[in-house]
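Q: Please design a sequence for this.
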């Protein structure tokens, strides 16, 4: 890298817009969405989609609710042309969906594009030519006037061929490609020239697409460009202002959202941001950003996993694990404090949602309810060496119904954490349950319960038991006001150090006649130390005694 960088690179000049309005505006409605997955997204694939893959992707986009879909560049290849003909001839385009096709301002390409649309009910022809100083100089070697003439000729060629599409509702979209790097005055000049030739009206507006083809400035500069254009464009009411952002600076979403504040009415992009270089705008992110603020995006993204499957199968791309809303880890917490907060937040939400309709979602670390996207709460908590008691307790409860008392969570959490740290990886819920079983339920030394029975006498209980103490059988007898008290009395009077029961909990594991019960018992030793134990059995009294033995075994 050069030092100083200014010897090679220059900052993008700001837009003179002293009375800009967009910073104080608030979004209240979604834009018109246009998916360009089948064109802009497809051209960026190492292996472009074949016809069957494009058909599957098209159907998925329709199910999501996209009403405008750019389906291809029909003059670019036979595959593109055949796909569009297949859509039209097989009547696969719903009546409320408009397909869009892209074409450069060249007569031969425009003619083939128009041919591809014969018989279509509704379509948008998307005409473009590049306008930036670098493109004018390096690619075309043309002046500004010659670039305007190119756009005007392309518009005329489309207009002249409209009789070939008699009976079809055809709209024009024009993009001064590389708008973000073009002087705003020239972008306005060329856009106005195209509009004058096409003759849009308020009732039948042109789509004026102002792309952030390559991000060359901060998002606020792009918003200024959009607001400047809206304020200076002749016959503004006869144009729908559309934006199409890329992600070269990693701010494609921000640029789009600020452009919407600046007045953009329509947004083009792709699922999960697939596209050239660092990608296009991720439509899903912008749509769900609106949704999390209570704005209906007008798209159905309720089965995110199925949508990801279609995308990955058709494009050969993968959705990164940290992709907003859709990635594997976005509803996942590894940090112990995060896990604890999520667990408590979900519990509060379930309580509030059942008590009142219209309860507001406000769960720590989860900006949106995973269930709204077809995700499951079991995906939220995962456990590795960075996890804490909250995540451990959540997994045990959600997967196995093991409801650890809070004090026991504080004891078992570090034990599990150490075990996971030794493994050096994430653990499954089943592995976590195995750790708990080995630490508490399966402890049989130095004491192991062989037999236990009780006799009730009035308000008291007499217990007789046989235990193995370091492998030696011992028969013990004790009395108390209940089975646990009687067993504790028997133990401390014969083979165990003095202790008392400090806490006791129990609950069923499952339901039905064969369901097990689990008991949790905390004992306090004579020196003040406390230990928890757990016991599992179909008989709750037996489970409770096993829990006492477990706690004693863990105290040695």
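A: Design:
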């Amino acid at each position: 890298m050069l030092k100083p960088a200014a010897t090679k690179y220059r900052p993008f000049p700001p837009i003179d817009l002293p009375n800009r309005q967009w910073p104080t505006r608030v979004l209240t409605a979604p834009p018109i969405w246009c998916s360009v997955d089948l064109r802009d997204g497809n051209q960026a694939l190492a292996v472009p989609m074949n016809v069957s893959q494009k058909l599957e992707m098209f159907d998925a986009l329709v199910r999501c609710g996209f009403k405008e879909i750019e389906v291809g560049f029909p003059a670019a290849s036979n595959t593109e042309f055949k796909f569009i003909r297949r859509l039209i001839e097989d009547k696969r385009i719903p009546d409320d969906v408009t397909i869009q096709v892209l074409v450069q301002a060249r007569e031969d390409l425009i003619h083939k594009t128009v041919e591809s649309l014969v018989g279509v009910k509704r379509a948008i022809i998307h005409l473009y030519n590049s306008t930036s100083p670098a493109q004018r100089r390096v690619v075309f070697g043309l002046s500004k006037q010659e670039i305007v003439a190119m756009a005007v000729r392309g518009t005329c060629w489309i207009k002249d061929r409209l009789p070939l599409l008699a009976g079809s509702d055809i709209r024009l979209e024009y993009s001064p490609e590389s708008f973000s790097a073009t002087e705003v005055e020239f972008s306005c000049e060329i856009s106005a020239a195209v509009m004058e030739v096409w003759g849009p009206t308020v009732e039948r507006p042109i789509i004026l697409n102002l792309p952030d083809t390559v991000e060359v400035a901060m998002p606020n500069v792009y918003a200024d460009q959009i607001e400047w254009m809206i304020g200076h464009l002749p016959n503004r009411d006869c144009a729908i202002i559309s934006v199409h952002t890329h992600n070269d600076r990693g701010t494609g979403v921000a640029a789009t959202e600020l452009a919407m504040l600046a007045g953009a009415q329509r947004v083009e992009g792709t699922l999960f941001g697939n596209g050239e270089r660092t990608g296009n705008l991720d439509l899903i992110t912008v749509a769900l950003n609106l949704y999390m603020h209570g704005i209906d995006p007008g798209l159905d993204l309720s089965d995110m996993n199925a949508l990801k499957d279609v995308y990955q199968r058709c494009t050969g791309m993968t959705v990164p694990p940290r992709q907003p809303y859709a990635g594997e880890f976005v509803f996942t917490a590894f940090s112990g404090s995060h896990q604890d907060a999520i667990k408590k937040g979900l519990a509060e939400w379930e309580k509030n949602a059942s008590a009142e309709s219209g309860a507001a979602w406000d769960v720590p670390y989860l900006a949106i309810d995973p269930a709204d996207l077809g995700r499951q709460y079991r995906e939220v908590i995962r456990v590795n060496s960075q996890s804490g008691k909250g995540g451990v307790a959540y997994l045990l409860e959600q997967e196995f119904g093991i409801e650890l008392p809070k004090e026991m969570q504080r004891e078992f959490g570090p034990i599990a954490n150490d075990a996971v740290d030794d493994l050096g990886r994430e653990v499954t819920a089943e592995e976590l349950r195995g750790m708990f079983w080995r630490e508490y339920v399966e402890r049989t030394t130095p004491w192991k319960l062989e037999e236990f029975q009780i006799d009730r006498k009035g308000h008291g209980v007499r217990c007789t038991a046989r235990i193995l103490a370091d492998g030696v059988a011992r028969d013990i007898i004790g009395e108390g006001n209940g089975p646990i008290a009687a067993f504790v009395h028997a133990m401390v009077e014969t083979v165990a150090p003095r202790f008392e029961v400090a806490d006791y909990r129990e609950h069923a594991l499952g339901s039905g006649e064969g369901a097990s019960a689990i008991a949790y018992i905390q004992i306090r030793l004579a020196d003040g130390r406390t230990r928890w134990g757990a016991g599992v059995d179909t008989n709750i009294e037996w489970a409770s005694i096993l829990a006492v033995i477990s706690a004693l075994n863990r105290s040695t």
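Q: Thanks. Anything notable?
A: The chain has a mean pLDDT of 93. The chain has three domains: 26-315, 336-440, 447-555.
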